[in-house]
# Entry
Amino acid sequence: MTRGAAARARRAAAVVARSVGGDPAERRRRRLLGAALTCCAAFLLAAIAIGTFGLAGPECLRTAGGSTVCLAGGGGYSVTSPPGVSEPIDDLTFGGRLVPDTSGLAPYVGESGLRPGVVVAALLLVVPFALFALQVVRLGSAARERRLAALRLQGSTSADLRRIAAAEVRGTGLVAGLAGLPAYLGLWLLLGVLPPSGWRLLPPPGPALVIGWPVVALLVVVAAVLAARRAADVGTVDAIGLTRRRARPLSRSSATATGVTLGVLLLGLALFVLAPNGAAAGVVVLVLPLVFVAAAVAAGPWIVVAVGRRHLRRGSPVAVLAGRRLLADPRTPGRVAGVLLAVGLAVGFAVSDVIGIFLSGRTDPYDLAFFGGGILTALGAIGLAAVVAALSLVVGAAEQVLDARRPTAALVALGAEPGTVVRVVRTQLRSVSVLPAIGGAIVGATLLGGWFVVAEGGGRLWVMAAALGAVVVAVLLAGGAAALGAAGAQRLLRRPLAEAMSVESLRTA
Amino acid sequence: MSTADVVLALLSRGPAHGYDLKRGHDTWFDQGRPLAFGQVYATLARLERDGLAAVAHTETGGGPERTVYEITPAGRARLAAWVAEPAEPAAPGADELIRKTVAALRLGLDPAGFVARQRAAHLRRMRVLEQTPATDPTSRLVVEHAVAHLDADLRWLEAAAGYVAADPAADGIPRAVAHDRPGDRPGDSSDDLSHDSSDDLSHDRSRA
Amino acid sequence: MTPQSTSGDLPGTPPADHRAAADRVPAGAVLEARGVQHAYRRTVALRGVDLRVDAGEVVAVTGPSGCGKSTLLHAAAGLLVPQAGTVTLLGQDLAGLGEDDRALLRRRQVGIVLQFGQLVPELTAVDNVALPLLLDGRPADGARRLALDWLERCGAEDVAATMPSDMSGGEAQRVAVARALVTGPSVVFADEPTGSLDTLAGRQVLGLLVAAVRERGASLVLVTHDNTVAAKADREVRLVDGTVASEAVLR
# Structure
């Protein structure tokens, strides 16, 4: 293709994308996509802000008495005390914490040694939003497939289709990427200004954000365009304009990817267990959670397949229908299941970690606030991830329901009570939410609790009891939250479901 | 359908006497009117006169004497030409159905009732034809042809009723006809009834 | 039904006469719809329609597109509650039944065949046919056996293990017919059952449906705009613009 032809094709794609944008469903899709991508950008900026905090200025300590001790360049330190205070400062043995002076940040954000962990947490929070965005990119598949088929019939090549798909999200991606900064500032007001001193999670905006902003915006646009181009490669759209929805079973390559991710995870775990204090362990501890989430997301579809097969074996029509629907496209709900598996794992870890606090024998209120605050913050972040995952679930399930409106209406016509159809959807939702969350919680709580019992419990009976208790609490917490999320999702699905079941759906194609 | 051509076609299968030909005809067209013996012999005589068929021999065994005919080369040529020539599509206006429909619709003689009665008659005939068991493949074809024609008639009838309903002037067009009915002027009461109802119909349809 | 229309001489019975006559309800009516009216947001579909179907009767509801025939079928099968009028199906006043009870009635005694797209896309043919039985709590093995049996009777045993997306239109309709008949319904509603098929496939599917219904002595309501389909019926009810334009006994 010549340069002129390529430019013409690009212009044509932009025109098609713009005219499609007038469709209300497409507008809704772009709004949702924009919101998800904005959140991605905001959390990326948060990671940058936290990661770069303190690099510019000296790190200071605040003592219990109110004096500020700042590390000087040559290894020494300078002390500034309020008037009338005189404290003995002896090397780092005082009862203070390393806190950059003016911020009032939470200790695990303020201390340079713990900060990378918080950066990793911020990056992990990008995952559910990114998956949500991916879901939205694939949204409106039926309508989009018809559109793509119509375009193909009129002579569009598959390259044209990819170009159009890219053009459809490029503008949205750019706006969302740029909106990341205002969104981050809003987040900062919420988490970095409003909380009391010592509980603040985000540092004041620094110069790093100015550089990070365009980088993040570009990253968001590129990721959105790549995802959209892949989504346009639907094998179901052929040149004669027929679209036939087919089951998309998991392929060998996705099995390989899952295997590799799990392998990396096991390797990391082994490294960590074999050399818990080695130099590599520090890096592993930071990378491990990322690999953990990646492994969970990769394993999600396989979990869905396993659950779907189990439903089939149960044989009741509701279970069979739910199972078949899960097996028809395990990827989309699988990613959500993966996130919720990770959420469950994190809940398990967080709950069991309480045992660690008691094992360390700390009673100092500051210490308890430090650990307790960390666990509470972690649970908050986990909750956010769970809510976003539940929203992905709603979006995906609504799509499937509306896609299948004619067969759904026919099912009711055939004599299925509306309640039966609702139960099918409920079974589907619960299978991909409650089960993985509970599974993750059991594994997480057992792993960490087991570690405490074996390595640090020293045969103390209460450790064993606490570990068991932690498993129960984690299961209740994760399972309850997931069940709540599934129930909420079902509530949000009530309208599309009723619409699909109405007799008017028989009139649609 | 020309009987001579059909008899020629039947004769082309091999020498046959009149009764064979009648039976053959009635098997081919088992839904149609049976061929009369008189017609068979008259046709054979004509074919012989024109040199398209010839007497092969005369059977005398047992019963009455029977003449067996065979097709001549000229007859074969004629048969080939007949089959090769496409049938004349039905001439417009020749059909009784068309004549009645045009009259009923133009004169406004209860056109809705006419259409409904004609429709019922056609459907009944179709139903009978559909229920006829197929004796052999070609007899099924003859049935299918009849059904397809009846279906075409029905669709045409529906369209015709639609035109009348959509065109309020339909009754007013033929002045000569209006003259035939004393006192039939536009807006006249006797015509108004069908007039209005067809008007309503068109309105509703455009709304639906 | 007026005497004239029974004799078949005057099929164009005016709706008013018809309604008055319909007050005499003889025994054996499978379906009795009276004065059914229904309007959608932008269009009036039915303007007071009466429809009576006797046991063992095959009735064709015909008319041009948009005449309200599908709406009439939906109301008769209890898929929608008409805004006015009553529908009595198998002795039950549908307005008095809840959604679930109507579903139960359909599942046990009513079969439904639509033009296309009625099979559950995630289920194989045999599971689709077994579905009404499974929904009714029948054991899976027996349900599947019966489903296979019906697929065979409908000439669709070759696609028993096939997904709907991999079937031809004719195969899908055969499966749909098997699914409508598997429960042994007293009445079958078919909405343009051959509408998406070519002539030959359509004729086969229709022949199958009519023969199976007649064999059982069940009733069939055929909604169609195709005259050759209507010619299979014992009686034709023709709708134009939401009212009964004519009625004719074809038997």
